[in-house]
Design goal:
This protein has eight helices and seven strands; from the N terminus they run H-E-E-E-E-E-E-H-E-H-H-H-H-H-H. The protein is of the alpha/beta class. The longest helix has 66 residues, at 177-242.
Length: 341
């Protein structure tokens, strides 16, 4: 069976057309796949506002809790010199509470990613938190900031190492031979001080042991006294319950009244003795006058007084009289009998 030229041409045109359609479909599908186009509406867009994006580029992944949940779909510079990023996020993924976006390098080969985290999960860096607070504008726009990458950390480390080198150089200049000798002397002084301190601690530990023994003995004494005080309190409670303390108090008050009366009586007796002493002093003065007159050897009395034997007896009598007066002052109860009922 032979095929006509027209039919062969139609078959060839059909194959060419089908091939073109297949290639076109493959190209369109590949382009959509490369662009990760959302044909089924499975993603939602998040707007991020940041002062800088670092090395973030289109198509970089968006990570939530360490899992890739979308990609960076657009990056544009706003009119207010802020960078606006559009992130495509899977609709089934829940965002953290109070979300913010951190832009950081994901590897040492220049790959970057956008990490969505909560504000509490932001590293405790003052500049980073200030950048997040500055980028926050409205509720439908997330605040974003760039984390320091390896290059920045290396530059900072270089500056720190340079500063350390300068400090080391200055320390080396300051730490000369004299400083070394002084340092060695200081170390020896510290060693001597530590030895003396150890000796002092050893001595004081013995004293503390002795003090602890004395304290323990004192505590035992206090416990004994407390036990006796408890017993006395029990007896006092018992006596109080039977009215003995009230009786003792009443008797004490009665005795105090009688003692006050006795004191008043003694005070009156003392006053009387003072008057008697005054009168006796006057009598003695008068007697001295009489004796002076008698000592003049005029009359019979003078002759009697000038007799040595009589004089000695009279002098002895006066001394005994003075002793008697002094004894009366000292022991009035011996000569005055006082009863208090």
């Amino acid at each position: 069976m032979t095929t006509s030229p027209r039919a062969a041409k139609r078959a060839s045109d059909f194959v060419v057309g089908l091939t073109v359609l297949v290639v076109t479909a493959v190209l369109i599908g590949g382009t959509l796949w490369l662009k990760q186009a959302d044909l089924g509406g499975r993603t939602r867009q998040l707007t991020v506002r940041s002062r800088d994006v670092g090395g973030v580029a289109l198509g970089n992944p968006v990570v939530i809790r360490g899992v890739r949940a979308g990609r960076v779909e657009a990056i544009a510079l706003g009119s207010d010199n802020w960078v606006v990023l559009k992130l495509g996020i899977d609709r089934t993924v829940d965002l953290p509470a109070d979300p913010v976006v951190l832009l950081a390098a994901s590897s040492l080969f220049g790959e970057w990613q956008a990490t969505v985290t909560s504000r509490d999960g932001v590293p405790n860096d003052r500049e980073l938190r200030a950048a997040i607070a500055e980028a926050r504008s409205s509720s439908d726009t997330l605040a974003g900031a760039v984390l320091p990458d390896i290059a920045q950390l290396t530059a900072v480390a270089g500056r720190i190492s340079g500063d350390v080198a300068k400090v080391a150089e200055r320390v080396q200049v300051a730490f000369d031979d004299d400083a070394a000798r002084e340092l060695r002397q200081s170390i020896r002084n510290v060693a001597e001080l530590s030895t003396e301190l150890a000796r002092t601690i050893k001595t004081q530990s013995k004293n503390l042991d002795r003090i602890s023994t004395d304290v323990q003995s004192g505590l035992e004494t206090v416990n004994t006294a407390a036990f006796k005080l408890n017993a006395f309190s029990a007896r006092l409670d018992s006596a109080t319950s039977r009215g003995e303390v009230q009786a003792i108090v009443g008797n004490t008050q009665h005795a105090a009244k009688e003692l006050a009366a006795t004191t008043a009586s003694l005070r009156e007796i003392t006053q009387r003795l003072d008057k008697a002493e005054t009168q006796l002093s006057r009598a003695v003065a008068r007697a001295d006058t009489v004796f002076a007159k008698a000592n003049s050897r005029d009359g019979t009395m003078g002759l009697l007084l000038n007799d040595p034997a009589l004089y000695q007896q009279s002098d002895s009598l006066v001394r005994e009289l003075r002793v008697l007066i002094a004894d009366i002052k000292k022991n009035p109860r011996r000569y005055v009998n006082l009863r208090v009922f």
